[in-house]
C-alpha cells in the first residue's frame, strides 16, 4: 500500500470502503479545534497522551518517548482499529505534526494498511471532503495484539557510539535556524549533534505542501546517504515526532528506513553531551 493517499483518492475510498480516519493534529487546543471542525467521520488521537509516554524528566527519553506496547495497544483498541483495518491519518501540517508519527508507529508494529493524507486537512477541504463538528464514535473491537516495535530505533548510548564511527549520517530534520544554533524556541539549548546533517522536513514538500515525487525524494536522500551503511543512518528532530515525516518521505521513495532517534534533540541537549553550532 502506498504510504500516502491523495484527497481525491480518499474521497473515492470512503464511498466504498470501511476506513478509520484519524485526526492527529497537535496543538494546545487540538481537541477543542477537532470538536469544532474536522474531516467528517474522523476520530481524534492525541500525540502527547496516546502516541507518547511523556515523562516528567525530559532528559530520560526526550519530550515524546514511545509508549509501551500495552499503552499503544489500548490506543488502537480505543480507536476501533484491528490488524486488518485500513487507517488514514491526517493533521494540519502536511503530515509533519503527528500523522507521520502515527503512521510510523502502526507500520512499526506490522500494521500494513495505513496511509497519511497528502497535503493534510487543508488539501482535503479544498478537494471537497466534507467537514463536521460531530464527534465520531469508534467501533468496539477486541484488544489489538502487539508485542514490540519492529522498525529500527536508537537510544542515547547508541548515538554516543554512532558519532564515534568514521562513516555515519545523522539527519536532523528541524528548521535551519534551530540546527545552526541561532534560535531554540522549545528546548533548553540551541545547536545540533556533532556531525549531523540538516535536511529540514519541509524540503520533502513542494510549493503546494504535497510530497515531492518518489523519484525526487529518492535522488535527494541517496545523495545524503552516499555510501553510508544502512545500520549507521539515523533520523531525528526535536522530540521524535517530525522526524517521522522524513521517514515517511523515505518510504515514499522506497528506500530502506534509517533508525529513528526517538529522544532526539530534546534528550541529547539535556544530557551533558557535546553540542555543535554554526554560529
Describe it for me?
Helices cover 30% and strands 13% of the residues. It has 279 residues and is an alpha/beta fold. The strands form 3 sheets. The chain has a 5-stranded parallel beta sheet. It has a 5-stranded parallel beta sheet with strand order 8-12-11-9-10. A two-stranded antiparallel sheet has the order 3-7. It is globular and about 50 Å long.
Characteristics of this structure?
five-stranded parallel sheet, 279 residues, alpha/beta
Quick recap:
This protein is α/β, with parallel strands linked by helices and 279 residues long.
Residues in helices, as a percent range: 25-40%
What would you call the shape? Answer: globular
| C-alpha Rg (nearest Å) | 18 Å
Distance between the termini: 43 Å
Topology as H/E string? Answer: EHEHEEHEHEHEEHEHEHEHEH
Overall number of strands:
12
Strand order of the largest sheet: 1-6-5-2-4
Report low-confidence residues grouped into runs of 5 or more. Answer: none
Please give the count of helices.
10
**Structural class category:** alpha/beta
Amino acid at each position: 500500500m502506498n504510504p500516502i493517499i491523495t484527497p481525491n483518492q480518499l474521497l473515492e475510498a470512503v464511498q466504498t470502503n470501511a476506513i478509520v480516519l484519524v485526526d492527529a493534529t497537535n496543538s494546545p487546543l487540538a481537541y477543542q479545534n477537532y470538536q469544532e471542525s474536522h474531516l467528517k467521520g474522523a476520530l481524534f488521537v492525541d500525540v502527547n497522551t496516546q502516541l507518547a509516554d511523556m515523562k516528567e524528566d525530559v532528559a530520560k527519553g526526550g519530550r515524546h518517548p514511545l509508549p509501551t506496547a500495552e499503552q499503544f495497544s489500548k490506543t488502537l483498541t480505543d480507536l476501533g482499529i484491528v490488524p486488518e483495518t485500513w487507517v488514514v491519518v491526517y493533521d494540519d501540517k502536511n503530515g509533519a505534526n503527528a500523522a507521520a508519527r502515527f503512521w510510523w508507529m502502526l507500520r512499526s508494529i506490522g500494521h500494513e494498511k495505513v496511509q497519511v493524507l497528502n497535503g493534510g486537512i487543508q488539501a482535503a477541504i479544498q478537494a471537497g471532503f466534507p467537514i463536521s463538528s460531530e464527534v465520531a464514535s469508534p467501533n468496539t473491537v477486541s484488544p489489538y495484539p502487539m508485542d514490540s516495535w519492529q522498525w529500527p530505533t536508537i537510544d542515547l548510548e547508541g548515538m554516543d557510539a554512532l558519532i564515534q564511527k568514521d562513516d555515519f549520517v545523522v539527519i536532523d530534520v528541524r528548521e535551519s535556524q534551530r540546527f545552526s544554533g541561532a534560535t531554540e524556541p522549545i528546548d533548553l539549548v540551541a545547536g545540533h549533534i556533532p556531525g549531523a546533517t540538516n535536511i529540514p522536513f519541509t524540503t520533502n514538500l513542494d510549493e503546494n505542501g504535497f510530497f515531492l515525487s518518489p523519484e525526487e525524494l529518492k535522488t535527494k536522500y541517496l545523495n545524503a546517504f552516499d555510501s553510508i551503511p544502512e545500520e549507521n543512518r539515523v533520523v531525528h528532530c526535536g522530540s521524535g515526532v517530525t522526524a517521522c515525516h522524513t521517514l515517511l518521505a523515505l518510504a515514499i521513495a522506497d528506500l530502506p528506513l534509517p533508525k529513528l532517534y526517538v529522544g532526539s534533540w530534546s534528550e541529547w541537549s539535556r544530557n551533558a553531551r557535546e553540542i555543535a553550532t554554526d554560529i
